[in-house]
Write a structure and sequence with these properties.
Blueprint: E1 2-19, E2 22-36, H1 43-46, E3 50-55, H2 65-80, H3 85-91, H4 96-113, H5 117-120, E4 129-130, E5 133-135, H6 140-149, E6 155-159, H7 165-175, E7 180-184, H8 194-203, E8 206-210, E9 230-232, E10 251-254, H9 256-259, H10 262-274, E11 278-281, H11 288-294, E12 303-304, E13 322-323, E14 326-327
Parallel strand pairs: 5-6, 6-7, 7-8, 8-9, 9-10, 10-11, 11-12
Antiparallel strand pairs: 1-2, 2-3, 4-14, 13-14
Helix pairs in contact: 2-4, 6-7
Length: 336
């Protein structure tokens, strides 16, 4: 038997987080907590037999807090009865709800058996890694100042929005001449401006461009010379979306809230690597509980973007330890 708890929580963002689609000042998350009753394991392990997973409902994908909670409630009876895990995951579509349930199940398994999640994922050990740090979209002068303040960080992720992006790029590069740059347009570029913007990115020394065109309207990427590697974000969710992307993209951004959890994320990473894609592991703005399972993908990724907690005014207790842009593996008290 498994006790299931679903909670909705809000964490304030330090300032505002702004992308091409809008701004927000709060990170709204849904957390699933699973507690196994009657474990036959030792008392020490049994006391810790609680698994947690966190997700971020995303309006871009038609999700709301209410819809995600309803999806989780629909599988509650099967979870509570200790039913087949694969049946539960199969009932949920790729997305936030399945992510929270899947990651909670991974955590519960680790806590119940005493075998760390990273071992189950096929890793020999977990190591600290460097993450990108996000600069929200704003006027060029504001972005330049934000980049200057973050210029000691090794990798900056610059949010762009279409009109005025060339000025933003020049301002950021001038303010942080030594930083590596990646950019994320969040589907905001016009097809007619695509090649000009890629050239501007190349001139600024940008190493990766995320999702320049809208998902479903990105065929033009296959017919141009990509001076800078282009990464699919909104255009890829799980393995079902891989066919047809290879001619358009050089990399994919694996996010657990899109794949529907760590199980599918690991499978997607393996399939994408086999097809020759570079990998980026990304996140929504969320707490360390959401970042922790994504850390298991970091060893496979060329780019790691797990800075969600750095953008918050406060994190969860026992959160990930960040030293500048270096993020350390999660402690068992957090996840896994």
């Amino acid at each position: 038997m498994i006790a299931v708890e679903i909670t909705v929580e809000s964490f304030p963002i330090a300032g505002r987080f702004v992308i091409a689609r809008g701004a927000k000042t709060q990170a709204e998350v849904v957390t699933v907590t699973l507690e196994r009753a009657g474990s036959a394991r030792s008392a020490a392990i049994r006391r810790g037999a609680v698994g947690r997973g966190e997700c971020v409902p995303y309006a871009r994908y038609g999700e709301t807090i209410a819809s995600v909670v309803a999806q989780i409630e629909a599988v509650r009876p099967i979870l509570e009865a200790g039913g087949d895990v694969w049946r539960v995951l199969g009932m949920l579509p790729p997305g936030a709800a399945r992510n929270a349930v899947d990651c909670a199940l991974w955590d519960l398994e680790a806590k119940t058996t005493g075998v760390p999640a990273f071992v189950r994922a096929g890793l020999e050990r977990m190591e600290a890694t460097a993450t990108a740090f996000t600069i929200s979209v704003a006027a060029p002068a504001e972005m330049a100042e934000a980049a200057r303040l973050a210029s000691a960080r090794p990798l900056l992720k610059i949010k762009l929005a279409g009109e005025g992006d060339e000025e933003r790029l020049r301002a950021v590069r001038a303010a942080a001449p030594g930083a590596r740059l990646i950019v994320d347009a969040n589907e905001a570029w016009a097809p007619a401006a695509l090649e000009r913007m890629i050239e501007a990115c190349a001139e600024a020394g940008v190493e990766l461009i995320e999702q320049p065109l809208p998902a479903g309207a990105d065929a033009r990427l296959a017919s141009i010379k990509r001076l800078v590697p282009v990464c699919a974000d909104e255009s890829i969710h799980d393995r079902a979306g891989l066919p047809g992307l290879r001619e358009r993209y050089d990399a994919i951004n694996v996010k657990l809230d899109k794949t529907g959890g760590l199980t599918e994320a690991l499978a997607l990473a393996e399939a994408a690597t086999a097809l020759g894609f570079d990998l980026m592991v990304g996140c929504m703005v969320a707490t360390s509980l959401a970042m922790a399972p994504a850390m298991l993908l970091a060893p496979r990724a060329k780019f790691v973007d797990l800075d969600g907690p750095l953008l918050l005014a406060r994190d969860r207790p026992n959160g990930l330890r960040y030293e500048g842009s270096i993020v350390h593996p999660p402690a068992p008290a957090l996840w896994g």
